[in-house]
Amino acid sequence: MTEKQPDQRTEPINNTAADWENDALPAQEDSTEDLILPNERPQAMDEFGTTGTEKEAGEPLDVALSREEPDFGETRPDPEGDIDADPAAERLVAEDEGVREDDEDELVAGDAGFDRGAYSAEEQAVREREDPDLP
After folding, report:
1. Cα of 99 vs its chain's centroid, Å
2. Of 7, 12, 38, 10, nearest to 23 (Cα)?
């Protein structure tokens, strides 16, 4: 007669992978592939606020601002600015300016001079510009 040994357990936690499949449970995989790995160097060891005294005192604003980095997205902006940009935005204004009823079938507007801002969406749509990406 064989007796059960106390070190042999029948719990599903200690069973082999074949036993998991027989019990209709999904196979257990190594889940470390999806984990974020730590950096090669320690982070924030030298930073302000690692001690309780610093946390209570609060971080000076100039120190906090010096650590910030701007979000540029995929490309960084050109430090020289947009060289090809139109230097001034001018206004397109209809001759009647909405004062009286328009008798013309076509839209007609003239350049009214400089404006304090950029082109409106409508004005950008009617202006010609060279696109370097187009053939």
Report:
1. 46
2. 12
